[in-house]
Amino acid sequence: MQRFSFLCLLACLAVAGLAPSFDAHAGTTLLNVSYSPTRELYDEFNKAFAAHWKSESGQSVTINTSYGGSGSQARAVINGLEADVVTLALASDIDAIAAKTHLLPTNWQSRLPDHSAPYTSTIVFLVRSGNPKQIHDWPDLIRPGVKVITPNPKTSGGARWNFLAAWAYALGANHGDEAKAQAFVTALFRNVPILDSSAADATSTFVQRRQGDVLLAWENEALLARAEVGSDKVEIVEPSISILAEPTVAVVDGIADRHGTRKAAEAYLRYLYAPDGQEIAAKHFYRPRDPAILAHYAKTFPKLDLVTIDAFGGWPAAQAKFFADGGVFDQIYTPGR
Amino acid sequence: MAVDRRASPKGLGSRLIAVSAASFMALFVVLPLTLIFQQAFADGVSRYLAAIADPETLDAIWLTLLIAAIAVPLNTLFGVAAAWCIAKFSFPGKNILVTILDLPLSVSPVIAGMVFVLLFGAQGWFGPALAAHNLKIIFAFPGLVLATLFVTLPYVARQLIPLMLQIGRDEEEAAIVLGAGGLRTFLRVTLPNIKWGLIYGVLLCNARAMGEFGAVAVVSGHITGVTVTMPLQVEIFYNDYHTVAAFAVASLLSLLGLLTLLLRRWLEVEGRGAVGAGMKGLPT
Amino acid sequence: MTVSANEGSSFRFGRRDALPGFSPTLGLTLFYLALLVLLPLSALVVSASGMRWHQALAYLATPRVISAFRVSFGISLAAALINGVAGLLVAWALVRYEFPGRRILDGIVDLPFALPTAVAGISLATLYGDTGWIGGLFAPFGIEIAYTRLGIFVALLFVGLPYVIRTVQPVLAELEVEAQEAALTLGATSRQIFRRVLWPPLVPALLTGIAMAFARGVGEYGSMIFIAGNRPGLSEIVPLLIVVKLEEFDYAGASVLAVAMLFASALILLAINLLQSWERRRHGG
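Above: the input entities. Below: the structure tokens describing the complete assembly.
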């Protein structure tokens, strides 16, 4: 008898606990499914947007966020994670969502300015303070004894940008010889001791667990790491050539419509392009699109020689060639060294 | 139980064994535990408390407690029912039943999580049906509970079955013959006998439910404050340069583990060896 | 866990048993198991059959997969064997000797059971990393522990140890002291006593403990992701490979791997059950 009443009590507790999750919010709730390095950015941006939305529309909005490797997050959305907006590392991941779920149109990228990338970044090298292994450019990465940290291109968006930047260098240095370029990236990955699943994991491996000699990182991750642990621990090396990394954002129409959050979701993304949003992005080490704000932060963001994804024929071509099953990345990874 | 005739280790061989045993344990078990608390308090007590009071941490704690509050009673109910029919009766296919019951223990937790995605994910068997009714299972609370139910399913049953087998059915049969009803027999005769084993099974089930990582990680969706449990929060903090916070949450989970162990000790003394009769093959 | 036949009357359709409650409890049990275990696992099998037989086998034969299985099963076996030796030592010390701190040691043995794997993971990764308390001792010699196969080995030692100890301990404790003393009075040497009286009943228990530690090690995930290097072909374990496949949208591949692991685990489980039956029969209870 006592057990029975105890069970009843538990059941009541459970129901009471579940109640909040039945969307009892007075106001709108948005879920932003994002990729791992943007945590600090969206922590601040979400607060700013909530205040902005309140003053604009009088409505209060709650923004929930989820972070993980860009590819993994895309998979989660495909599997049913109900993102009102996605802010991922590259267009290819959002393309995958569009193709597999039809929750947004395949021409989503043209709906927002600058190919739906309100801020950009690039790939740089993060090395130990004093650069003991003397790493100055791409060729240094394939020297024997140099340990390179980069995440897994199959799951991490940042890793794919890393790979393409390396490929761009190798192709240029070898006058367009693809076989030699492949040899270069093969040698590069031979020097990679650990493959984490996301850019943030890789950064953590390099910075906190002190593994490896050089981290191939998003510029914003590198700048953040330097700010967090100090320039007496790590320093940034700009390679001779890198890639313009465009993390893209999109409203997931099917879900936003179902939740009735379309207006808020669209406003949320547009706010990223507004001066306030651009300022926050720049503060968190993302290169803003707004030229005035970019000029203001010129010291943080040096000019680099950058190729774009168009040099690879766009993401669909690049994804198929390099990262799909049996693509270049699969070919170069030989196990059991 | 054999006669307890322990002696102090005499002679070099015995001393060596005792010392090696103690050193091995200290090195491989005690040291990691100590490290957790050392790292958690590395920045002082106030930072430790601040990490615990962080809204993300509190959300994670509440979520973890809630999941356990649902999963553990359900599995206890199941465990008792399963133990009753398996231990007190004989029927064909019993061994198969027991093997199925054991399966969640031997399945890697990521597989456990994955199968629920296969079933309830948007691309899964029940995906379209769930979407049509606007029901969220995966990447929401119900998914977390299901994954936890799966991985902790056998614990209570495994404790009770050998125990009830050992006890036999004579007492219950006697009670029935004397005119007691089924439920009464269970409550008055069976329950007191299995009390300590049951409690221990519930303890283990609970410890595992709160500490589960792999299965939950796959079905969680990592929605901050909504579907992030304590173990997941440890990983998030750890990867975010918040080492102290990560170890602070880890220390809470460790305390839970230590508490479970202490209670087991105490139960052993009370139950005089009845506990742990079926204790084999456990967590992840 | 096998169930031996010392319970009561067998079930005959239509005949009422002396004890009530059979049907409802069996019904509930079957329902619960079908819903929570059989249904999900059959989804797995069906998903794996998205790949045809020869495709699946070809996939399992790829170097990366073979390497992952070798790492998972090989290192788990090694760790289980070492745990067998160490566990026997510890169990011996706990059962036979009295020394200060024995009770505490006895309690601590269960710690890897009770500690969540993620917690164990970050702790071990920190401990055995380059700047950790233990890792730091080896680093100057160029020996890396965390993020290598050695790290996986150490972590599996941690999680598997209690299995051996807790399986061997009760058997050791039960061995009749009188039998040993009788053997002594009959003139047997210590070595003979060990070999003829103690060792035979210990073997099945030890094997069972090792098998369980092995099974656990193969499926371990939570602690692995913090301490394994995840490098394909070198330090990538099967559960991690499954997650990678999942994250690449390769459900069929992930399911095939999962089924292969399940199959191997089922074999191990069967072996454990058989071992335990053997133990019961030989040892008489």
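Note for the figure: Residues 123-244+305-332 of chain A form a domain with the D-Maltodextrin-Binding Protein; domain 2 fold (CATH 3.40.190.10).
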